[in-house]
Amino acid sequence: MKKRLYILSAALVTLFTAQTARADTLDFQGAVDKLNTENQLVVTQNFADSKGQTGKMVVMVEPAYTQAATLAVKETPDADAKTIRTLVFGQKVSRVGLCDNGWSKVLVKNNAGDKVYGYTESYYLSDSELLTEMEEELTVIKDAEVLDFPGTRNGLSIGSVVEAEKVMCTGVSSNEWSRIRTENNKGEEITGFVPNSVLSETKASSASNATNASGDDDLIEGEAVLKPGDSESLWAKASKEVSQELSTTTTAGVLEGEAVPVSADAKLTPLGTFRITHYCPCSICCGPWANGITSTGVTARTNHTIAVNPSQIPYGSKVVINGQVYVAEDCGGAIVDNCIDVYVATHEEGESKGVFYTDVYLLEE
């Protein structure tokens, strides 16, 4: 389908990045406040990025965890710098400082295997552990897509599994997702995520110690690893105990918005036919980002918030879907051109409304 969105002013178009509402993390001021609260000495250092721009960094040594599918580590704290390492979801690193430009200094290994300092965006680092490592063979009980991230709103398909297939589960996240090793249609080994609901443990499960997500067992102190010996399956135990704070319950704390019908005399500009999906702030939809906070920083509301590709529909745009007005306030890695994700209160509601295609309009004001 030919895009019909060039009517939007180029000045309004926001560069699309796969940002979503982040889990708990620190920024520069948050680190300063935390140190002051704990009566610790606040030490700052100067930094310079690849363009010579300078700023302040507060020194704080603590573990942090990658909460993006992949995350680049740069030589200096800016996007244009050379990439020295790529982290994967759940990977644990040693963060040693937070810059006032939104970047964190971390200790990693470069491609040669040497430990070096680099920088990555603080937005994509969580202060909480997001993945429990394990090793257990499981059986697929339902055909499913394998995603590169544990959440349907941000995860992109990288393969699939079929019923009765045996896979190796290497981790559990958010009570709802399992990281597995399998093969794609080319016979290449891939690592990705499937919902726990499509897996069933085998009668004779096996387990062994595991290193962190990248195999760099000396990058930082070892990952938490479930070990054999329990009467209960490792996977079953992890599915119940990992990240209990990230619940699929969404009825409490969800902001309800009032449906706003478009007025009869409204000026509408057609945007084309879109694929309409639905999401809620649960671990199935959002994985570790299940806190209801949008990528624009506001709390999502039902009958109001939609997730879009902001390079196609800029943030703040009012959009009319089936006669109702919504506001573009969120985005997601799986939301591509001509796709809109509508925020709802519960996962059950989202499933009942399903997926459909309809004409979408921009409300001109």
How would you characterize this protein structure?
This protein has three domains: 10-15 and 250-364, RlpA-like domain (Barwin-like endoglucanases), CATH 2.40.40; 28-126, SH3 Domains (SH3 type barrels, Roll); 132-241, SH3 type barrels. The chain is mainly beta. The protein is 8% helix and 38% strand. Strand 3 and strand 4 (83-88) form a beta hairpin. The protein is globular, with a radius of gyration of 22 Å. 41% of the residues are buried. The longest helix has 10 residues, at 28-37.
At CATH level 3, the topology of the largest domain is Barwin-like endoglucanases
- CATH domain class of the largest domain: Mainly Beta
Which percent bin holds the helix content? Answer: under 10%
Give the overall shape. Answer: globular
Quickly count the domains: 3
> Which radius of gyration do the C-alpha atoms yield?
22 Å
Q: What would you give as the CATH superfamily of the largest domain?
A: RlpA-like domain
What is the arithmetic mean of pLDDT? 82
- Taking the alpha carbons of the first and last residues, their distance comes to 27 Å
Largest sheet: 6 strands, antiparallel
Percent in strands = 35-45%
Unreliable stretches, pLDDT < 50, 5 or more residues?
1-23, 204-229, 243-251
